[in-house]
Amino acid sequence: MKRNSIMLILVCMSWMYFPAAVLAAPLSAEEFNASSISNELWTGAVVMIGTPDTVLFMQAWGWMDKSRDMPMPVDAVFDLASVTKAVGTATALAVCMDKGLIDPDSVFTNYLPQYAGELKGAVSVRDLARHISGFSNGKPYAVAGEVTERIMRFSPVLSAGETYEYSCGNFILLGLIAEHVAKEDLAELCHKNVFMPLGMDDTGWGPLQNPEPERVVRQGITHTLGVASDMAARQAQHPLGNAGLFSTAEDLSVFCRMILGNGVYKGKQILSSKAVHLLGFLPDKKSPVAFGWRVGTKFNPRPLSSSTMSHTGWAGSSLWIDHVSQRYVIVLTNRIGNHAQASSARIKLAEYALNENVSSSAENPQ
After folding, report:
1. Phi-psi region at 262: left, alpha or beta (left = phi > 0; alpha = psi -120 to 50)
2. Which residue positions in the chain have pLDDT lower than 70?
3. What are phi and psi of 272, to 5 degrees?
């Protein structure tokens, strides 16, 4: 009886001191986005959720930049920053593997003989793509006009396979590998084999030619229009594998549907099912990255499965592809606030959007 009385007192106290937490209705995606804009995490956002067959949710909120002169359009073109690694470079490598040009478990210098750094043992293409190569995320190569030359002398600090450390250098090297074996630059390789067949007409590497201020987002941190926010990508004067790709939610949705279709979109075979499996399957626990794509619940909005492929970008983008639920989620923002806080907020925004009743009148993308 005494125990029951204590429990009753505790329940009453919880209602007394935390009534708002108990009674408050969950925020809508629109309300959460508005709070994120008020908290100066970003100026505007575009969110898109879909399946291989249907767009379930598509909405734009906020403004193109801090001036709040132009509303964010649903077809806004964003700087994807490090999402380039997943959508661009990892896909280019998958294309090369499908063509028999690359073995992911071969030493990367077999495909990049001009590399002149000092290795601490063998480093495979897969080691680079999983960020277990031993390279740090230092960027001594980010010098205007010298990025490609300097990355060829960039050396790892650890032996491969010992430690996971995210490194932009890994994907600059991987981009150069794809270019070397395909004998064309990264932008041409992706355009010809991926973006053009998928109809991703607004996707490509910067600097963008004649960017439209009404559509191209002026990046929130660097305030540039159509120029990569990433320092190395901006200074390379050449498409890089770590960053520099621009795209829209609509274009990215087509890419996601291709991945959910195991490499096929509208009857077109873009990648083999083997390549798609390589991109999104964790072979072991050495790294949270499968092959360019992160896989794990801590990176995902809660409704998505633990098998979800994901990547984020410094400029304010997040992308999730879930083979289990056959859904993708795209959150593109113009980040102006703290990187870590904004990344967490994009996950929450995705959760609110996933949990809302989606419009039955949403149309499929063309």
Report:
1. left
2. 1-26, 357-366
3. -75, 160
